[in-house]
């Protein structure tokens, strides 16, 4: 399994911020987690509101927890609310089931981490995460 280096994590964040700037997104916050759910890097743009670390990490953590991007979790919340209630309970409320949590896959398609982005609409957060992951040479999996 490929480990995600600090340099690659910072590249993901920088590219996600650049995508946000290019598309006129509101101030973003981006977290990169390794495959074990540990924070590799986090940055918050000037003007980002409070609780952004918790939201971004909840999106990424949820993606890692189920092995699918948080877009999939969002769909499950709509069609299987009891599943999400249970998942939330067993995770201690750590999971945020909306788009913006994207798995990072290496060249062998192994999950090596996840990115969580928050600050704009969930769809735009996801776009920024995907841009960051691709810029670092990995494959995004949004679910």
From TrEMBL:
Superkingdom, natural source: Bacteria
UniProt xrefs under Pfam families: HbpS-like
Protein name: GlcG protein
SUPFAM superfamilies associated with the record: GlcG-like
InterPro entries xref list: GlcG_carb_metab_protein (IPR052517), PduO/GlcC-like (IPR005624), PduO/GlcC-like_sf (IPR038084)
PANTHER family recorded: SLR1406 PROTEIN
Native species: Hoeflea olei
